């Protein structure tokens, strides 16, 4: 049994995440997906709640053919404790898939294996770029799995993002 | 689509929980299981980490035939905010299954539907009773699903509980 | 201008508090009332929210004839910082009216004047005793100012207390 | 009985706030004023403590002819819980007066009525502009009610702001 | 270079602690003393502040002939993160001296060496027993190093303990 | 007995700090060194843990000839409570040595004596400048005491800083 861990903020979950996870699914027996900054929502960088993000991810991965766990992870704001925090909230895992330099350094100091997955169309497929499209009224739907479009429509997510982007 | 929410501390997850969830599985389309007091572990009432409990529950429910989410929920120590906390961490749900009077009151004030599931062998099947058996060296394995026995053995959980129960 | 500070949990605000405040009103120009443990509600010792307690106190003091402030004070769980916490949340005051030994010690170490007001019918007039009457269905209404009865009826407070007192 | 809620940081309370509250006073029976970011003080954007701000507001509203509550509200840094936090700290209210897009979105999702009051001389009457005048030694006194001038002089507030604005 | 870690609440620091540390001093090159529950003070179990306890310990160890560090450690209330918290606040160490079962279990799971030092007159030399003597007006001075007597007299510690032990 | 307090983040501890402390050592009987933002580490402005910084300082001051305490101080994010927080974590002191305007203002409001020590080669000797040298591969070793070079090499600190400075 080999378990891999992958963490992101998923604001929103998009095709780049999906591509990475499809790659991981071929290397491990089970995937643990950490939903980072779980306590944040309703702000410009973090419009969606942890629960909404759990829903997006679970829906999008229904056909991935590899068992997975989706776990909200609240920020701790104490880097030296972060690995212990993550491992206390998740089933045990053997490898962490990440390209984030801080996550790499923290797991390295904890002697946990790390692998940097290839990025998929990084420039256009990023949460920042997709939220920008939503704000400008551009096409964002083709950047995320169809199940994510459904969730965002259901919660009226684009309208939420636009309202909180206004200035008073 | 109807989603039901069920919360417990699951220290450990046992056959009583399993029976309740099998009942709920027949009434809803998806189940959300909240793992309460997620931040607690390694104490007499809460020996297991949230991640270990997520693992127990997921393993035990593999055959339940109803999609489910397992979500760690950290305590907030502010009852008036607890429903908002829970709903921010979970996909939207239609009904809360609980027999806990405080949970009933808090969801009632938030106008969320509540249903109290029948308890299954409450006196013998409780976390407290099972942890007591573990401490006394009595048979506890028949009180929990086989998958939970495996998880507890793998993490050497009984030994952990016994060590922290000693006095210095 | 002389301001006096008085703190309690006011679960609920009762005739004993009212009698003490009527006494203080004759000694100072303005009264600051701190609503302690403001973050607690919906538990057996703290059934009412800070906002509900602010409402009870304000209504009951309408005719006291002395300007007053009602300020929720969240617990800090760090005694050495508590006086600084209180004074940051309140207008400046000259004297603290209290009979609580910890509050006396903390203000004394901060060189703030203290006066212990006479207690009024302490045995029968206490939050504990009144909550007990509510649970047992005994007459509690004569223990609190009429305005407090109204607030508790309006929020269905007795029913809330009874529900959370049940065992599951 | 109709209660209206109005929130701000009030760093400091100024004539723009006063004008808005005078307008609200004609539409409701009671006003609840939330003093936001109550835990902040002694920084460039938040020089005054919650208690000092409570004092400014209370003094300035003495003649408003409408009962009011002034309630410090500490930041929660969790937007999804913020409405529950506010409502737990305040008496119940029917309408929220605000022009802040995030507050609008959060109350809207909680199905609470919102009304955006007309702004009064927004460009010159803002906390930022007034703090800038204090730093530059310009006339700021005519931007705030006379009672606020008195409070700021009493606590030597301009000197505090200037000291913390220095670089070491 | 071998460093040993020893943790306690030291309410107050007494001859039993001193005897243990004198033993450790012969086994390591440097000692790290963690002052646990550093955030607590002014309560019946924790009358002294972290700073007062740092002073007691430093004074009492002046002649121990082994370099030492005295580090306040605030409680985290999350056992799974506690070892990471401790190691982030202290210089690196090779061995933990403790008889506390929870500390043993947590360091064991982190693969850090543990050694249980012999206890010295445990029944009479305990913080609980010494605080009890202080309350009852019995002789407590011979239970602690002379330097600790001085610190407690200087801060009027016995009077503080007695005041907070009163009932209102 | 006169004690002086000096606080910094010490990221890392450098020759400027050393020069200031050598000056203070001639004016007081004991020095208390507060290690600020103790909870931060592994970020660009705060690469080192509190424990690593305690080690740097203690090593570097071995020959200073004045007793000293090194105390980690976690941030409180509430300026009005900060002085009470500091004084609860440290032995009592008579004077605070600081050039930080906020620290000056907070201690001044608490009526504690302040003295601004002369800065030593401020432009080149700053944590920011030294961290920049580490990132660029320039000579940083001559900016810190030899004992600090040893600690940073031992923990592979430069490599840590470089890794977390990368972009993903």
TrEMBL record, chains A, B, C, D, E, F:
It is found in: Cytoplasm. Residues 5-133 form the Cytidyltransferase-like domain. It is an enzyme of class 2 (transferase). GO terms for cellular component: cytoplasm. The keyword ATP-binding applies. Pfam families: CTP_transf_like (PF01467). Pathway: Cofactor biosynthesis; NAD(+) biosynthesis; NAD(+) from nicotinamide D-ribonucleotide: step 1/1. Keywords: ATP-binding, Cytoplasm, NAD, Nucleotide-binding, Nucleotidyltransferase, Pyridine nucleotide biosynthesis, Transferase. Its EC number is 2.7.7.1. One of its GO terms (biological process) is NAD+ biosynthetic process. GO terms for molecular function: ATP binding; nicotinamide-nucleotide adenylyltransferase activity. It catalyses: beta-nicotinamide D-ribonucleotide + ATP + H(+) = diphosphate + NAD(+). InterPro entries: Cyt_trans-like, NMN_Atrans_arc, Rossmann-like_a/b/a_fold. Its main location: cytoplasm. HAMAP family: NMN_adenylyltr. Belongs to the archaeal NMN adenylyltransferase family. NCBIfam families: arch_NMN_Atrans, cyt_tran_rel, PRK01153.1. PANTHER family: BIFUNCTIONAL NMN ADENYLYLTRANSFERASE_NUDIX HYDROLASE, PHOSPHOPANTETHEINE ADENYLYLTRANSFERASE. This is Nicotinamide-nucleotide adenylyltransferase. It comes from Methanocalculus taiwanensis.
């Amino acid at each position: 049994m080999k378990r891999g861990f992958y963490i992101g903020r998923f604001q929103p979950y998009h095709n780049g995440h999906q591509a990475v996870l499809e790659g991981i699914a071929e290397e491990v027996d089970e995937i643990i997906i950490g939903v980072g900054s779980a306590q944040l929502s309703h702000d410009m960088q973090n419009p969606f709640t942890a629960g909404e993000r759990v829903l997006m991810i679970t829906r999008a991965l229904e056909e991935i053919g590899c068992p997975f766990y989706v776990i909200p992870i609240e920020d701790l704001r104490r880097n030296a404790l972060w690995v212990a925090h993550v491992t206390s909230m998740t089933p045990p895992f053997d490898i962490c898939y990440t390209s984030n330099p801080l996550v790499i350094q923290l797991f390295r100091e904890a002697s946990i294996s790390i692998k940097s997955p290839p990025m998929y169309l990084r420039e256009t497929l990023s949460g920042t770029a997709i939220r920008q499209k939503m704000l400008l009224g551009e096409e964002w739907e083709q950047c995320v799995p169809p199940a994510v479009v459904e969730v965002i429509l259901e919660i009226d997510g684009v309208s939420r993002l636009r309202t909180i982007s206004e200035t008073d």
